Each structure stands twice: as C-alpha cells, then as structure tokens.
Amino acid sequence: MAKPRVQFICQSCGATHTRWAGKCDACGEWNTLVEEGTAGGIGAGPNSLKSSRKGRAVALTSLAGDIEDAPRIASGIGELDRATGGGFVRGSALLVGGDPGIGKSTLLTQAAAALANQGHRIVYVSGEEAVAQIRLRAQRLGVAQSAVELAAETNVEDILATIADGKRPDLLILDSIQTLWTDLADSAPGTVTQVRAAAQAMIRYAKSTGCAVVLVGHVTKEGQIAGPRVVEHMVDAVLYFEGEGGHHYRILRTVKNRFGPTDEIGVFEMGDRGLREVANPSELFLGERSVKAPGAAVFAGMEGTRPVLVEIQALVAPSPLGTPRRAVVGWDSARLSMVLAVLEAHCGVRFSQHDVYLNVAGGYRISEPAADLAVAAALVSSLTGLALPADCVYFGEISLSGAVRAVAHAQQRLKEAEKLGFGRAVLPASAEELPAARTGGLFQPEALADLVACIAGSRTTGAGD
Ligand code: TYD
Ligand code: MG
Predict the structure, then answer these.
(1) What is the fold, at CATH topology level, of the domain defined by 72-279?
(2) How far apart are CA 104 and CA 97, in angstroms?
C-alpha cells in the first residue's frame, strides 16, 4: 500500500510545499500553509492513478471552420449583462468573487429571479445559509414569487444527483465554492484540495450538459479558507464584486472572460430592497461636487469601454512634522510620489514642507495612469488656493521627464465630458485625431510645466483659455 503522503498547501495561491513554513515562498503570504493528506485522492501526483486504461484517439481538426456565437442567457439586469459580456454563457463556468457581505448572494438572487421570470430553469444551491434565510432575502428583494428552485446543500455528489432529475437547469448557482465538498477528496471543506476538486466537478458538469454554472467565492484575508484565486484558472470568466466600506455603491469588475471583453464594469447601488443599477456612474461619482473649492479636479477616466468622470480631491497643507505626511485613498501612493517628484523637479512647485492628502471622491478606485494630469492639477490648485474651472476635465499621463503623454480613447472621454456639461478639457498634445468641431475649449500642454503655469497665471480666467 502506498504510504500516505502529506503536503502543505498554501490556501492563498495553492502552491504545494513538502514542509510547513510560516510564509509561503510562492506568494509571500503568512500563515497560509495547511496540511492536506493527498494519498490516492485528487491532488496526488499522476503516479497515484493506477489506471490500465489505454488512450483513445481523438480527431484533430483545423483552425479554420464554422464558429458559433456563444449561446447566452441575458438576465435583463443591464449592468450584470455588461460585465458578463452579454449574459451567462451556456456550458460555461463563471466565478463571482468578493469580500463577505459585499452583496454577492443579493446580486445572484436578483439575477436568478429575473431569469426564472423569463421561463428559464434556475437552481440556487446555498451552502452558507439555511433555506429560511434565503427566503427572507428574497422577500426583502421582492422576488419571493419567482420560480427559482432552492436547496441548502454542500456535497457535490448530492447536488449533481439532485439536478439530474427533471429538465436540465439553464443556470446553476453555487453559493459558495468554499462550502462545497466532494467524496473524491479527503481534505476538509474550504481547503485548496476540496475547493479545486469541487470546482472541477461542477465545471465538468457545465461543459458536459450545457448548463451555465456560477460559483461564488469569498475573498479571504487570513487564508483560513482557500480564496477564489485557486479556481480562477479553471473557470471561463471571473467577476469581482467590490465596494468601499461606508459607501453604498458596488462595482462588478470583469477580470477574465473567455467569451467577452475584460476590464468591463457594472455599477450598482445597494439599497433597502437590493441592488439597483446605476446606468450613468459619472453622475454618481460627481454627485456632491462643490465647484468653487480649490484642490478639486475632474478626471475623465475609462473603465473598459465606458468613460467615467470622477472628482479627484487634493489637500495640501503646511506640515508641522519633519517628514510631511502623504495619504492617498483610491489611487496608488507610489504614483502620487512620482507626480509630486515631477512637480518639484520640473515645475518648481515645492511640497517638501507640506502634508499632502489625496482622495478620489465617492470611494471609487482609479488604476489608470491617465489620472496623473488631474492629480497634478488638483495638487497645484490646492497649494496655490486657486480653484480650477468648474467645467473642465483633465486626463493624460505624466512621464518622469515632465512631458504629458498621450492616453487612449481621448475622443470617448471628451464626448462623455461634453454630455455632462464639461465644455473644457486639458489633455495631451499628442492625443489621437480629434474632430475639427472639438478644438474650442481644449488646452493641450506638451509639458506639465505649461499646465502649472496656466493654473498659476489664471487667477481670473482659468486653465483652458
Ligand atoms: P449578501 O448578498 O448576503 O453578501 P455576500 O453574499 O456577498 O456575503 O449581502 C449582505 C449585505 O447586504 C448585508 O450587510 C445586508 C445588505 N443588504 C442590503 O443592504 N439591502 C438588501 O436588500 C439586502 C438583501 C442586503
Ligand atoms: Mg452570501
């Protein structure tokens, strides 16, 4: 008999180690290694599969040939369909990850009800909540009457046996992947081995039957249970549901999609009666803007294919400390240091005696380098006490040499800005061809110093003139 082998598997990244260690070498997380027995079960090497089966030849084919569009079932919830690229794809597996309590179950309950109302067979299996709790949520959401089939179950084999009866479901929701366990793996539920084995079984079910499977995964900080990351590579699409504590809106972000675009976002607002779609996020993020205050600049950003306007707020105040404070919310702090350094080195603006606070309004998070120009404008505005023009947007990347570099989608950004009443814009000189009609109200500095000079010299007129 084979000696039972013991391995230590990182619950964060799934790397296997032969010895226990406080820190995982692969991902650098602490306290994430857990002992998992792998004798014979899933997770053991190929040697343990004592199969005498001979391989079967499969037909090889060519790259050219007929292609069918992925058959989709659209939920009718516009922001969700946008994030999935047009609806759930039949025969595919989708992972919806997010922090506990962010609203994953709420979103999927609403989607399930919407699809059931269209006549699809939807099965919702919860391993986290009792049937009564799910009913309560459905009541709160006002969808208790829809024909969603419900079960509270965690064993993969039992779930598969349950849905084998009757018509094949169009959509199967498993909430959450961390509670599932299969007889094939002998580790505890929630460990990497179990999570992977259970996900594999459900993905196989999706591929073989054509049912769309949604796996819910909790993002975990402590690594006590395996995170969604360990199944990301197995599924066809990955969506993350995000939100900032204290704010009501939630963003559904596509990070992987084999059937559609990535970088797409869906925006929702969490209310008393569930999630409400926010079709125009710019209006939400610009919500309570005070146009007269110095230190605020509106950034024309892009989220996937959609332009989003958001206010960047800076506060620059004289510092009583030897080492001034720099604090950032919603942006990269290394990027802020870079913009500050460029302002000091190339524009003669000194921040060394000042505390700098930067905030992206509404708790939104920006990852685009195109925000550099808006950040620089907000910083200079706060330092000088000169408010920026209220109807002006900013976008452009700043290089270490102080040059303003072009960014993609200039036209779309300008169009969105115009739609929301921003007549003026500061953008890179080297931006793509702009329509001739759109040359009024544009200021296209070659270097950051030009913008600084424009703000400082514009006590009455403002940048863009
Ligand atoms: P839930 O969907 O259970 O989160 P997850 O499945 O991601 O863990 O949502 C939990 C939170 O959402 C909870 O704090 C209550 C809140 N909520 C509302 O504010 N309004 C609602 O209509 C519902 C159903 C939940
Ligand atoms: Mg939940």
Answers:
(1) Rossmann fold (3.40.50)
(2) 8
